[in-house]
Amino acid sequence: MAGAWARLPGALGRGALLAYLSVIVLLPLAAILAHATDGGWSGFWRAVTAPEAVAAIELTLVASLIVVAINSLFGTLIAWVLVRDDFRGKRAVNALVDLPFALPTIVAGLVLLALYGKNGPIGVDVTFTRASVVLALLFVTLPFVIRSVQPVVIELDRSMEEVAASLGAGPLTVFRRIVLPNLAPAIISGAALSFARAVGEFGSLVLITGALPFKTEVASLYVFGQIGNDDVAGAAAVSTVLLTLSVIVLAGLRLLGRWSSRHVR
Predict the structure, then answer these.
(1) Do 140 and 201 touch, CB atoms closer than 8 A?
(2) What phi and psi, each to the nearest 5 degrees, are found at residue 189?
(3) 107 and 129, same domain (yes or no)
(4) Whether residues 91 and 164 fall in one domain
(5) What is the pLDDT of residues 189-237, one digit of tens each?
(6) Eight-class DSSP state of 123
(7) What does the DSSP 8-state code read for residue 97?
(8) Closest CA to 253 of 202, 198, 187
């Protein structure tokens, strides 16, 4: 009897978790899949192969992958500097990293438009260009890599680096053979989070990109436009394709992260 009571909290927790995931995640996904085939599979195929839909999905995936590559490099570098270097204003910089988390995305779009718009103070106008898509996604996703890598850098054993340096290894060799293998799982985790956020980003893109079809219209903006045109089935179909592609990319990143973890051990 005592053993049954001891197992009760765990059983209740698992039941609550399953119910929560079903209501919050699984049922909405099932509804999207159901709407995607409202017009049959032929209607689904027409919706996802429409030239504008294909262009929006391609732009979303390409821009997201570019953002992931840039974030992986500069996010890791920033995390390293914030941990290993001491400089004036370090606390302020560390606090600013989290600004995109706290800032509403539509406000982020307004900030970017004011800075990089036609009458911006720096004289650089990227509005309504594909560069504006990448810029907006970089702004909202950079903290993911930084905050994923930073704790790992803090926990790194510096004695291994010092021993390698004392044996004649140069800074590049130390980083490549000792530091990077330990940081790789965290970098990949941050990259996966960045990709997931970039694929679904909406608010920061509305103002600065203009959502121009075949030019700056990403998938989320295309789906929003289809909803406005009362084409729920078409919006759901494109959402389903985007969801599938995102799951494939995220699964690949997870597998790469697991391989990196085993390799480090």
Answers:
(1) yes
(2) -65, -45
(3) yes
(4) yes
(5) 899 889 988 998 998 898 899 889 999 999 999 999 998 888 888 888 8
(6) S
(7) T
(8) 187
Residue with tokens 């009571």: 5
Q: In terms of C-beta density within 10 A (0-12 exposed, 13-18 middle, 19 or more buried), how is residue 238 classed?
A: buried
Token pair 């429409």 is found at 50
Query: In one letter, which amino acid is 29?
Result: L
Q: How many domains does the chain have?
A: 2
Q: Which two tokens stand for residue 151?
A: 């704790």
pLDDT per position as a tens digit, 127-138: 899 999 999 999
User: Smallest Cα–Cα separation from 72: which of 194, 164, 179, 175?
Assistant: 194
pTM strictly above 0.70: yes
DSSP state of 149: H
Phi-psi region of 237 (alpha: psi -120 to 50; beta: other; left: phi over 0): alpha
Say whether both 113 and 231 belong to one domain.
yes
Q: Where are the beta strands (DSSP E) in the chain?
A: none
| Token output for 195 | 């990709």
Instruction: Assess whether 48 and 159 both reside in one domain.
Output: yes
